[in-house]
Design brief:
956 residues; six-stranded mixed β-sheet; 19% strand; alpha+beta; 34 helices
Length: 956
């Protein structure tokens, strides 16, 4: 199952951390369940509806059109029926490699694919490859739809003349660095091991989508051109247009741009399905991880088999819900595991079901494995209760409601329709699956669990230690069969040139109409900042408090984080389990996190269930209990998180850079979002957590920021009923933060964190600036966009697109209350570490001296930043982020609507001047996390001071 079953979804958690939001309170907890009867699962399921019209071109291109007028944008999503399961032996990784090549320009649109998209203000543009398909997507202003369709059709029908050996070599390097970056993470080799042992040789789902290094090295220009000709025909694709468009308009445009492309070969289906192991398989690995992790995996039914719905629900009850059987037994009650998870990857014809448990330090892994197996067996024997099944059903439906608010991106309406059409010839596959969920019974779920989890399992144990497996050779399959290609009747002669080869202009882009901002004050004086967003029945509330990790003042680093995590672990007479069960019943997401300057609690509620959701929210905010036994459990979990961060190269680099930039006394000398200091977490008491809550999480220290489909007049009575009586704890003073002056760097220096056997080096660099987050940073941010803030920036285009040494490089300006920092992040291949630092320094020096923003770069930045605004604020979460920033930095209400005018008046000289006044390349501090035996000799040749420090031992 996906993490959506947890108290806070992954998307909501990312939003919460970005906002540094905060909590709200409500009616007495004892009335939480009775405050209002929640909507039934069937009622919620009816809220998911994606009507569409469908037509097919003579060349076989299937087209789906969905009309959604809430924003003047259209999502363009094209899915090709080619993925890694279609790759034969010696060609593993080709589908993903070609995904990269498709962004390097076509015959009539030479150059990087992202440039003409950025010119028109495209948002959510990318491409992905998986076992069954490759997809490409972008959301564009309505006026730019012609350009988007021209670009997509040009790379479908007129690509091969633009594919060169140089482009192949470059993208081969980029993909290999993407593989190194993934392999370099803790548990980064587990997926290879599971799939290699779950499926036999030659099975389509056995080898990794990224492929093997050897096969990538062997790819020739002729190989990749044949791959394109075989797989990228219009008859092997589905195009979805979703947004401010109708089917009649869509048909005219699609026929114009795609109609002349001839059919390609027929790609036969790859029929490989679930596999049953003959006997149980047990494996063990060592890796640089925090604690032992126990896995259980099975091959299971795929998306097209509706029996997978019952299994999915059962797995949710087993380990996906916050109140799951494994959570309750292993984490909450017995405290033998610090976390559990259940992942059900449901592909077209196969599923991969993996359960895992992270062993609590000091507990026998064998005991955890035994208890894990007993809990699994117990659910198979008894089946879920009706209440458990209902909660799983509600969580699934709520997740679908949230996912389909957006028209495009990685999981919106266009994706939902395309997936059903490509995999099942039915765009309403999502509806079939929701209906199947609605019809499930406990006995049906029990039967599915018996059928699929009663078979032999693949058991894997990963222990802390030096990694004993090399990821380089992994990912391929020398027996892969691939797909049968039928080229009968396909023309072998060269295709005719495009009749209209000129790229359309940007078209007219509508002005941003940011929702009107309203303000109010609760009965207790707590301010409310509100915007209405019609459409999906969803209410987002964040209570943002002036706290964050800066409230810890370094000496108590970890206290704020632990206190916030404890809020949903017991409040107002409700236990941790009861809070989890209630949120699941309501289809609500509830959670808390700390950024640098602000702490927050986010409620993401379905509006039909808003009143009882507010009651639960209020209980969590006003009356957390901080019970001693719960605090001990949270302590173990937080210490494990700290150890995990110490074994993650990106986290180590970020944390060390913060310490070097700000020093040990400044609150920003620690990494925002980090779990804290082990010594602090080890000594925190329940009384400490309550004191922190009373000082910081209080109505006179925060505000409510709300986006809802309801008007403010309908919300205020409910908010006052829930939170209006909330008052600060008597006699407790509000917390106050202090900021010391960060040290001034005297010159370039390098700190090398030795991480043996790392296949990649993570470079983090930065400098503390004089500016603060509340200052006007627009010109500085625009200049950084050119230098390192976008895919087309100089830093990324140099190290990724020109050199091929990295999967991605970027720079940014932190928006913090006190002094902001300029930071660069660059994961690079280990043998190019010093070369990469030289190139980074050269690019920054050039930009701040002789090679400032060109007229073309300035225009691209201005056009992209202004034209993307309507698409940026399509969804409720993005509006909430915008509101929060307006409130946090005291910006005017029309801040976003005035941006086009401000960008339009900005000159290249102003962009250059802002960067040059702020960033001094001679004062950049570099942190490198990598293998010192490989990296140190390179760094010594740079002529800069190099300090080598040891990384924590594996698992410490």
């Amino acid at each position: 199952m996906t993490p959506a079953g947890r108290l806070l979804s992954g998307a909501s958690l990312a939003l919460l951390i970005a906002l540094s939001a905060a909590p709200v309170s409500a009616a007495p907890a004892s009335n939480a369940a009775a405050a209002s009867q929640p909507a039934s699962a069937a009622e919620l399921a009816r809220l998911v509806d994606i009507p569409y019209e469908r037509f097919t071109l003579p060349n076989g291109l299937r087209v789906l059109v969905h009309t959604d007028r809430k924003a003047p944008v259209v999502a363009v999503s094209i899915w090709y029926g080619v993925g890694s399961k279609h790759e034969p032996a010696g060609r593993t990784g080709f589908a993903h490699l070609f995904e990269h090549l498709m962004f390097n320009g076509s015959e009539n649109a030479p150059g990087d694919f992202f440039k003409p998209l950025q010119e028109v203000g495209a948002t959510d543009f990318n491409g992905t490859t998986w076992f069954d398909r490759t997809n490409y997507f972008q959301t564009v202003p309505v006026g730019a739809l012609d350009r988007a369709l021209f670009l997509e059709s040009d790379r479908m029908g007129y690509l091969l003349g633009a594919v060169t050996q140089d482009k192949l070599d470059n993208q081969r390097g980029v993909v290999q660095n993407e593989k190194r970056q993934g392999d370099n993470q803790p548990f980064g080799l587990v997926e290879y091991v599971i799939n290699d042992n779950l499926f036999p040789q030659g099975h389509g789902y056995r080898h990794s989508t990224i492929g093997s290094m050897a096969d990538l090295d062997a790819a020739s220009l002729a190989d990749v051109k044949r791959w394109f000709s075989d797989n990228y025909g219009p008859n092997n694709a589905v195009l979805v247009l979703a947004g401010d468009i109708d089917a009649r308009t869509a048909r005219t445009l699609v026929e114009k741009y795609f109609g002349a492309i001839p059919r390609g070969p027929r790609v036969a289906p790859v029929p490989d399905g679930p596999v049953t192991l003959k006997v149980p398989v047990s494996l063990a690995l060592k890796d640089r991880v925090a604690t032992t992790r126990i896995y259980r995996s099975w091959s299971t039914p795929g998306l097209n088999d509706l029996s997978s719905v019952a299994l999915e629900a059962g797995v949710s009850v087993l380990g996906g819900l916050s109140s799951s059987r494994l959570d309750n037994a292993l984490v909450r009650d017995e405290k033998v595991a610090v976390s559990v998870s259940a992942d059900y990857g449901v592909f077209q014809s196969v599923g991969v079901l993996t359960l895992s448990a992270d062993v609590r330090p000091g507990v026998s892994p064998d005991l955890v494995a035994k208890r894990m197996d007993e809990v699994i067996a117990g659910l198979i024997a008894s089946g879920p209760s009706a209440e458990e099944l209902d909660r799983a059903r509600r969580v699934e439906i709520a997740g679908k409601i949230r996912a389909t608010e957006s028209v495009g991106g990685f999981g919106g309406k266009a994706v939902t329709l395309a997936e059903g059409e490509l995999y099942n010839n039915d765009p309403q596959l999502y509806r079939k699956r929701l209906d199947a969920y609605a019809a499930l019974t406990p006995s049906a779920v029990q039967s599915a669990l018996k059928t699929w989890l009663g078979r032999p399992a693949l058991s894997l144990r990963v222990d802390p230690g030096e990694r004993d497996l090399d990821g380089g050779p992994l990912g391929g399959d020398t027996a892969a069969k691939g797909a049968v290609i039928d080229r009968t009747g396909v023309a072998t002669s060269a295709r005719a040139a495009r009749a209209e080869p000129s790229m359309p202009g940007a078209g007219k882009v509508s002005d941003l109409d940011f929702p009107s901002i309203e303000r109010a004050t609760l009965a207790n004086g707590m301010p409310v900042v509100y915007a209405q967003r019609a459409g999906e029945p969803r209410t987002l509330i964040t209570a943002s408090f002036d706290a964050g990790t800066a409230a810890d003042q370094v000496r108590d680093f970890g206290l704020q984080s632990m206190m916030l995590r404890a809020l949903t672990e017991g409040a107002g007479g409700l236990s941790s389990r009861q809070i989890a069960e209630e949120s699941e019943k309501l289809g609500a997401s509830l959670g808390a996190a700390a950024g640098s300057d602000r702490s927050g609690v986010l409620l993401d509620a379905l509006t039909p269930n808003l009143t009882p959701s507010l009651a639960l929210y209020a209980a969590v905010l006003k009356r957390p209990t901080f019970e001693a036994a719960v605090v001990e459990r949270l302590r173990g979990q937080q210490l494990s998180r700290i150890t995990s961060e110490a074994n993650n190269p990106s986290a180590v680099a970020a944390a060390e850079l913060s310490r070097r930039l700000y020093g040990t006394n400044h609150p920003y000398g620690v990494r925002a979002g980090s779990a804290g200091d082990a010594a602090v977490v080890g000594r925190v008491t329940p009384a400490d957590l309550k004191a922190a809550h009373d000082r910081w999480i209080r109505p006179d220290n925060g505000r409510l920021v709300i986006v809802s489909d309801l008007p403010l007049s309908a919300l205020l009575p409910r908010l006052n009923a829930a939170l209006g009586d909330w008052k600060p704890e008597a006699g407790v003073a509000r917390g106050v933060k202090t900021f010391s002056e960060p040290p001034v760097a005297s010159g370039n220096r390098i700190v090398l964190v030795d991480r043996p056997k790392s296949p990649q080096s993570v470079i983090a660099a930065g400098q503390v600036l004089q500016a603060r987050g509340g200052d006007d940073l627009l010109a500085l941010q625009a200049g950084n966009e050119v230098l390192g803030g976008s895919f087309l920036s100089r830093l990324n285009m140099n190290l990724r697109e020109t050199k091929g040494w990295s999967y991605g490089v970027g720079s940014g300006i932190s928006e913090t209350t006190d002094r902001v920092a300029f930071r660069i992040n660059a994961p690079v291949q280990a043998d190019r570490t010093a070369d990469s630092i030289s190139e980074l320094l050269k690019d920054v020096r050039d930009f701040t001296t002789t090679r400032g923003t060109t007229a073309e770069e300035r225009q691209l930045t201005v056009d992209g930043a202004t034209r993307e605004l309507p698409g940026t604020f399509e969804g409720s979460a993005a509006v909430l982020t915008g509101l929060s920033k307006i409130a946090e930095f005291n910006r005017p209400d029309d801040w976003y609507e005035r941006l086009p005018e401000r960008y339009g008046a900005m000159t290249a000289a102003e962009m250059d001047g802002a960067v040059r006044r702020a960033v001094d390349p001679s004062r950049l501090t570099f942190v490198v996390v990598g293998d010192a035996s490989v990296v140190k000799p390179q760094l010594d040749k740079l002529g800069l001071p190099v300090e080598v420090i040891a990384s924590p031992p594996a698992g410490k």
